[in-house]
Amino acid sequence: MTLRTLFIFFFTKGRITVRGKLVARGNAKKTDVVLYYKPNIPIALIEAKDNNHGVGDGPQQELDYAETLAIPFVFASNGDGFVFHDRTGLRDLKEENLRPDQFPSPDELWRLYSQWKGLDTSAEALVLQDYYDDGSGKAPRYCQVNAVNAAIEAIAKGQDRVLLVMATGTGKTSTAFQIIWRLWKAGRKKRILFLADRNVLIDQTMVNDFRPFGGAMAKLSTKSKTIERSDGTEVDVPLALDIKRRIDTSFEICLGLHQAITGPEERQKLFREFSPDFFDLIVIDECHRGSAAEDSA
């Protein structure tokens, strides 16, 4: 395994401050070098200085950034050697001086990372499942990577319920997509239900963020419609219900409204058509708003 390296990584553009009609942007946050075990699985940061500085100069900012980015290992270097900061607490030395030829191998770093996270062999296989990549070069934001990886790690270790709290505009839907994609591709979750509280959220999710699911995906609705994608093309939304509200169980990924599943009238309670263990994974968008019924868990 070879570590993927990203130089001069800007992970924020700077805080925006608004005072009356004046708007200012603060300093962007960046790190010199990020090492990835696999794409979107960051494992170490390197603070790089020239050899006019001491080998251990200036690591505190990188240590702060490592906490923000959920990265356990930080190295500081002036080109002549390294200072290795290990945030896992698994080694006898939290900080150690290394010669260039003593830099840990990718597998050594991953072994420590996996031990730190409490991953067994089965959990590791899921955690290392690839993200979806459309080839455009567009990368998820650091907060999305943190959320996706934290959710996958929790599920890999057997946690049944995960709550992600993300601010408006931080890409919750694309975050949900990557979580679902990795679980689905790994074969860990084969039947998946995605719930939202507005039709437009379902429709736009299907034709945009969830588009890679293709023919495996359908909407729990009897009403056909044509939706415009973000690229201007149009597509008919596939339906998982016929006119008599019978469910086509061949679809692996279903999207629907909370109201369509639990509707106020008995005949509208679509969830009764599914056995309790029909879906392996249920993802609820805006769960604070649409699923806050008295009997919700």
From TrEMBL:
Superkingdom: Bacteria
PROSITE patterns attached to this UniProt entry: HELICASE_ATP_BIND_1
Residue ranges of domain Helicase ATP-binding in the record: 153-297
Keyword DNA repair listed: no
Keyword annotations from UniProtKB, A to Z: Endonuclease, Hydrolase, Nuclease
A GO-annotated cellular component: cytosol
UniProt entry tagged with the keyword Nuclease: yes
Pfam families: ResIII
Molecular function per GO: ATP binding; DNA binding; endonuclease activity; hydrolase activity
PANTHER family per record: ATP-DEPENDENT HELICASE IRC3-RELATED (PTHR47396:SF1), TYPE I RESTRICTION ENZYME ECOKI R PROTEIN (PTHR47396)
Name this protein carries in UniProt: Type I site-specific restriction endonuclease
Organism name: Mycoplana azooxidifex
